[in-house]
Design a protein that fits this description.
Elements (H helix, E strand, L loop, with lengths): L2 H8 L3 H9 L6 E2 L6 E2 L2 H15 L4 H9 L5 H33 L20 H10 L1 H14 L1 H17 L8 H17 L4 H13 L1 H7 L6 H13 L1
Antiparallel strand pairs: 1-2
Pfam families: MerR_1, TipAS
GO molecular function, one term: DNA-binding transcription factor activity
Keywords: Activator, DNA-binding, Transcription, Transcription regulation
């Protein structure tokens, strides 16, 4: 199966498959005559596993370690994924019950205490923060949180919004242009107000913007193609 064909049936981009190959997560055989990637049935099954793990918020590095582990067994992995999903299903059902109960209270059908408005649901879970802790360590995340508190949440949100709006305005330009580099530099400066980012970390973060569909979706709310533009501009900035 060729790259475009697999991308179409899996519902992901060709760029994502190329990225998985680049990082050694899913590397198909290369046709020596024409240089095309040829995906076997096993590669397709492996991609299914990768996408299952991605839906469960596993990092790509974690998935790679799991798939390369000598203890890895596909059937066991599927059973573990099923167990995780069932637990998540229970959590979401609890949220739905709480929402339904709150709707009844808003309509005056029942009365809820303040404590009941938060009962049965853990609102403290933040998958993005957990991912950051695993990638860069607790110390950097705690430092970033403290710096954000010093700045003030509203102030940080306003600055973030201004930076992304201006980046969206120049996304049609060449990422190497002075205007594009000036705006992406403001993003680098902002990140270093709330944490410590080396140019290499900045570049790697940009790659995540297109490799991780969650980032792409959120960033492109400011303008179609912004995530791709930022990735390229951040790479130029690093170089």
């Amino acid at each position: 199966m060729r790259t475009k064909e697999l991308a179409d049936i899996a519902g992901i981009s060709v760029r994502t498959l190329h990225y998985y190959d680049t990082i050694g997560l899913l590397s198909p055989e290369i046709d020596r005559e024409n240089g095309y990637r040829n995906y076997s049935d096993q590669d397709v099954s492996t991609l299914q596993q990768i996408l299952f793990f991605r839906q469960l918020n596993f990092k790509l590095t974690q998935i790679k370690d799991i798939l390369n582990s000598p203890k890895y067994h596909q059937t066991e992995a599927l059973l573990e994924q099923k167990d995780i999903i069932l637990k998540e299903q229970t959590r979401l059902n609890n949220i739905l019950k709480l929402i339904d109960k709150t709707i009844q209270a808003e309509r005056g059908e029942i009365t809820m205490t303040n404590e009941e408005k938060f009962s049965g649901v853990d609102f403290s879970h933040n998958p993005y923060e957990q991912e950051a802790r695993e990638k860069w360590g607790d110390e950097k995340v705690e430092q970033a949180n403290q710096n954000l508190k010093k700045m003030g949440t509203k102030e940080a949100e306003r600055e973030f919004d201004v930076i992304y709006t201006k980046l969206a305005d120049v996304r049609h330009l060449d990422p190497e242009s002075d205007a594009a580099q000036q705006e992406i530099g403001k993003w680098y400066d902002f990140l270093n107000k709330v944490g410590e980012y080396t140019p290499e970390m900045f570049k790697n973060l940009g790659e995540m913007y297109t490799a991780d569909e969650r980032f792409t979706k959120n960033i492109d709310k400011y303008g179609d193609g912004l995530a791709e533009f930022m990735k390229e501009a951040m790479t130029v900035y690093y170089e």
